[in-house]
Amino acid sequence: MFTGIVEELGEVTAVETLDDACRFRLRGPVVTQGAKHGDSIAVNGVCLTVVDHEGDEFTADVMAETLNRSSLGALAVGSRVNLERPTAVGDRLGGHIVQGHVDGTGEILDRTPSEHWEIVKISLPAELSRYVVEKGSITVDGISLTVVDAGRDHFTVSLIPTTLALTTLGIKKPGDPVNLEVDVIAKYVERMLGDSVAGEEATR
């Protein structure tokens, strides 16, 4: 489990394209401290498994399902990525509960800067819109954010200078894709309510 608090802005140093997968080598001096084979590291919000680790770099394999569902397939050598290690039991939950299981992708639609923050408008797939509410939580490229405005096909977030300086949202432009993970609690509630309604109808 992650919290959506990005630890560092890493970099893709190598990409190996396979038949139905891709192997990335990424540099991240912070997240590789104490890393070992089998550990999890979130890359732009996608939970990946460390295959190999040397110095301040680690290697991770990405299967076709993940490439199709996320924006990782668009990464190239030199791409900057948000990196986060899993939260440890007993640590503070700085953001919200993040699984690292991307639900879909959105696109940066517009950026509106102001003196102390920036409003970013992001497209929202129709199948995810019911999980996104004003003042609710959403994960964008692995960053835990609060929804400012929730529309049918888009939402907005307000970014403070720290987020702009230390994450990919500070450098992404309109048209760039982003990974989206909605609040898992909303999905569980929907499932439980659905099962409850179905059970009531079955007993009638």
Please describe the topology of this protein.
Blueprint: E1 8-17, E2 21-27, E3 40-43, E4 46-54, E5 57-63, H1 64-69, E6 80-84, E7 104-113, E8 118-123, E9 137-140, E10 143-150, E11 154-159, H2 161-166, E12 177-182, H3 184-202
Antiparallel strand pairs: 1-2, 1-6, 2-5, 3-4, 3-6, 4-5, 7-8, 7-12, 8-11, 9-10, 9-12, 10-11
Note down, in words, how this protein is organized.
By secondary structure, this protein is an alpha+beta fold. It contains three helices and twelve strands, in the order βββββαββββββαβα. It has helices at residues 64-69, 161-166, 184-202, and strands at 8-17, 21-27, 40-43, 46-54, 57-63, 80-84, 104-113, 118-123, 137-140, 143-150, 154-159, 177-182. A hairpin with a 2-residue loop joins strand 3 (40-43) and strand 4. The longest helix has 19 residues, at 184-202. It is globular, with a radius of gyration of 18 Å. 31% of the residues are buried. The model has no long low-confidence stretch (mean pLDDT 91).
Could you report the average pLDDT, rounded to the nearest whole number? 91
Sheet bearing the most strands, described? 6 strands, antiparallel, barrel
Distance between the termini: 40 Å
Structural class: alpha+beta
How would you write the strand order of the largest sheet?
1-2-5-4-3-6
Strand residues, percent: 35-45%
Report the C-alpha radius of gyration, rounded.
Answer: 18 Å
H-E order: EEEEEHEEEEEEHEH
Give helix % range: 10-25%
Stretches with pLDDT under 50, minimum 5 residues: none
Number of helices: 3
For the secondary structure, the number of strands is 12
Shape: globular
